[in-house]
């Protein structure tokens, strides 16, 4: 009986910690000296000398700037204090993670060396709240024999037992198990200690003006078939609740916001950041919560207030959009985690309501009925590393993201026989880019709140995006163009109020990462609400070579230029900078709309090609050899002058996301039920 309870506790904690990856893709192994020695011997046989990564650079420090600097960081980081990371062999604590973010190398258990080419500007360790208290509890000398036996399972996990009890462990609402005591007090007490240590590590690393840390953690409810509705909770300053709000205290996001609102008082301020929308299975953007209860006006207001940005790119794929899911935009077929849902499928596949662009469209539809758009979300990227390596996003330095489960090039290139997603669908993750006056907690937090942020798939592309009604025609030639754009318009994340029947202007400028390839093109993605439908359009507006074709509105493709035997970057393929002022001549002031920018880099080698070089083998065929890295700006919204007043109900349901008319460049619409490969040709 005691053994059954112990294994059940293990299964529950694993699930609540978000360890879905391990149940399908990893072998839960005992981390014996023999196993580690064998792993390190395998890694030692790889030809690391065949890979050329940029030499480490010093940290970039900016003086305070009223026109704002761009700062790059990672707000989704796991250390050994997350149960799933610890289970996979990660032994680095938050202090080590922050040191890595500032440029220190880390030698992983596999023997692989991870190091950033350029230190980050900010980071937050966000260990799973559901794990808090476990390690402190196991160190408690007063634990019972049954608890002690459970703690011994950290180094001897059983995948078979885990799988057998998986369905039993998923409950609504989530319930703490016997390890935590009858009332959960044992884990709650020790969880406060974990939270205190997490905050202390952040304070030790915080150096205002040079490197910023935030107090944070991940709220991690779990769903069947590898689904999740996870959010990272980030606090502005040191005034925070003395305990975290986990899925045990808040079964839904509505409960999370309400509970945080009650406990985060005084100078305390927080925001929540959803991630892996691609695994929400339609729950990301819906009129009802995770348990099917309708959102109220108070819920919508809380969501709008506390959830300004969403994480649209990380190790488990892109959550911008998916080709064939409410769009025919071919660039949405980028680093997809799941294949499209077939007819009748709704879980463990790509479907409507689980992508950021779906959310933007959903917001327009809700706004038409409520008079309130509760999902005006800005964008960020992050890594979701479980190696305690924030910001380790370079394709050539990819060492996996989950301890020994994907350590070594050989293991990373293996294709498993089960599960719709395999290790090779993972990627190094992305970065959060924030425009702020200075590198401090207050300044960066304010930027997140106003959504002057963007996401990258890894490279530190610099991106500005503004909208206005009367921007000068010669803006691109003016030295103070950014100052004028701020004064006469709004930046990314802003709302441009209507001004008669004029066509809005959009000013955008993108600069390449000095350590990566040049830029290929800038695209505008527009969505608008018209006659009960949400429509979209994708337009190329600036090209590295030539101009967009007048009919297709598409930039010329770049010629192949990457040598797969070396993966050397072709510095001549793209341009170091692209800039343009674009006017939307199709704008109609009576229709609510959003616009955001997507910048594509010239093709470079994907991490899987680098690993193939390490193994002296040809690039694997199941995924593309090349990748077009990119950046996505937060949107700018143009609402109509007047919106309906909220009356406590909707006069109609928001239109189905794939009922809208889609105009995408260079491709025809794809039937919603059609299957596609889960990776794009690049």
What does this structure look like?
The chain is an alpha+beta fold and about 675 residues long. The protein is about 25% helix and about 20% strand. The protein is globular, with a radius of gyration of 24 Å. The protein is built from 17 helices and 27 strands. The relative contact order is 0.14. Helix 1 packs across helix 7 and helix 5 runs parallel beside helix 10.
Topology, please?
Layout: H1 2-16, H2 20-25, H3 33-44, E1 69-77, H4 83-87, H5 94-101, E2 106-107, E3 113-114, E4 122-125, H6 134-138, H7 145-151, H8 159-164, H9 166-169, H10 185-205, E5 212-213, E6 216-219, E7 222-223, E8 227-228, E9 231-235, H11 253-263, E10 270-274, H12 297-306, E11 309-314, E12 317-318, H13 356-370, E13 378-381, H14 409-412, E14 431-436, H15 441-450, E15 453-456, E16 462-468, H16 481-488, E17 489-491, E18 505-511, E19 519-530, E20 533-543, E21 577-583, E22 593-601, E23 604-605, H17 607-614, E24 626-627, E25 630-633, E26 636-638, E27 662-663
Parallel strand pairs: 1-4, 4-5, 11-13, 20-27
Antiparallel strand pairs: 1-14, 2-3, 6-9, 7-8, 9-10, 11-12, 14-15, 15-25, 16-17, 16-18, 18-21, 19-20, 19-22, 22-25, 22-26, 23-24
Q: Can you tag this structure with a few keywords?
A:
682 residues; alpha+beta; 11-stranded mixed sheet; 4-stranded antiparallel sheet; 17 helices; 27 strands; 19% strand; globular; disordered N terminus; disordered C terminus
């Amino acid at each position: 009986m005691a053994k059954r309870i112990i294994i059940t506790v293990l299964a529950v904690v694993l699930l609540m910690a978000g360890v879905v990856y391990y149940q399908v893709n990893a072998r839960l192994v005992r981390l014996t000296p023999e196993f580690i020695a064998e792993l390190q011997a395998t890694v030692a046989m790889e030809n690391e000398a065949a890979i050329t990564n940029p030499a480490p650079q010093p940290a970039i420090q900016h003086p305070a700037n009223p026109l704002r600097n761009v700062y790059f960081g990672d707000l989704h980081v796991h250390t050994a204090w997350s149960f799933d990371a610890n289970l996979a062999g990660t032994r680095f604590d938050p202090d080590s993670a922050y040191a890595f973010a500032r440029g220190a190398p880390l030698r992983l258990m596999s023997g692989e060396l991870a190091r950033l080419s350029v230190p980050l500007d900010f980071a937050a360790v966000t260990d799973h709240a559901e794990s808090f208290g476990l390690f402190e509890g196991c160190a408690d000398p007063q634990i019972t024999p049954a608890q002690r036996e459970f703690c011994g399972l950290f180094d001897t996990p059983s995948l078979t037992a885990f799988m057998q009890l998986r369905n039993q462990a998923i409950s609504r609402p989530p319930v703490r198990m016997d390890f935590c005591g009858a009332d959960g007090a044992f884990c709650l007490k020790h969880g406060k200690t974990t939270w205190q240590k997490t905050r202390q590590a952040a304070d030790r690393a915080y150096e205002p003006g040079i490197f910023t840390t935030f107090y944070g953690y991940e709220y991690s409810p779990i769903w069947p078939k590898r689904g999740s509705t996870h959010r990272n909770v980030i606090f502005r300053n040191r005034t925070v609740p003395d305990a975290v709000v986990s899925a045990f205290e808040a079964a839904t996001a509505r409960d999370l916001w309400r509970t945080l609102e009650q406990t985060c008082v005084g100078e305390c301020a927080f925001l929540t950041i959803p991630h892996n929308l691609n695994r929400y299975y339609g729950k990301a953007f819906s009129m009802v919560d995770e348990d099917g209860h309708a959102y109220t006006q108070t819920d919508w207001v809380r969501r709008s207030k506390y959830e300004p940005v969403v994480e649209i790119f990380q190790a488990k794929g892109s959550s911008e959009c998916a080709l064939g899911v409410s769009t025919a935009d071919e660039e949405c077929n980028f680093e997809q985690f799941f294949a499209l849902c077939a007819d009748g499928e709704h879980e463990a596949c790509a479907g409507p309501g689980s992508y950021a662009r779906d959310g933007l469209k959903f917001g327009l539809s809700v706004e038409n009925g409520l008079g309130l758009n509760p999902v005006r979300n800005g964008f960020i990227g992050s890594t979701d590393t479980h190696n305690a390596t924030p910001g380790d996003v370079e394709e050539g330095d990819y060492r996996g993201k989950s301890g020994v489960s994907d350590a070594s090039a050989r293991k990373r290139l293996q294709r498993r026989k089960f599960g719709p997603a395999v290790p090779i669908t993972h990627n190094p993750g992305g970065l959060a880019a924030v425009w702020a006056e200075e590198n401090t907690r207050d300044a960066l937090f304010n930027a997140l709140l106003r959504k002057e942020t963007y996401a990258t798939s890894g490279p530190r592309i610099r991106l500005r995006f503004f909208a206005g009604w009367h921007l000068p025609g010669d803006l691109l030639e003016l030295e103070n163009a950014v100052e004028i754009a701020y004064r006469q318009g709004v930046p990314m994340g802003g709302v441009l109020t209507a001004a008669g029947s004029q066509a809005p202007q959009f000013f955008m400028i993108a600069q390449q990462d000095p350590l990566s390839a040049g830029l290929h093109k800038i695209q505008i993605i527009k969505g608008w609400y018209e006659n009960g439908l949400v429509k979209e359009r994708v337009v190329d507006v600036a090209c590295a070579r030539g101009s967009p074709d007048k009919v297709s509105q598409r930039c010329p493709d770049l010629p192949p230029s990457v040598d797969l035997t070396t993966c050397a970057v072709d510095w001549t393929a793209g341009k170091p900078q692209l800039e343009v002022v674009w006017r939307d001549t199709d704008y109609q002031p009576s229709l609510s709309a959003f616009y955001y920018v997507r910048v594509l880099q010239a093709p470079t080698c994907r991490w899987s090609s680098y690993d193939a070089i390490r193994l002296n083998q040809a690039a694997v065929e199941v995924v593309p050899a090349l990748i077009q890295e990119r950046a996505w700006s937060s949107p700018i919204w143009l609402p109509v002058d007047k919106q309906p007043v909220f009356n406590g109900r909707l006069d109609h349901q928001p239109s189905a996301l794939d009922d809208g008319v889609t105009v995408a460049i260079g491709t025809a619409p794809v039937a919603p039920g059609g299957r596609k490969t889960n990776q794009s040709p690049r």
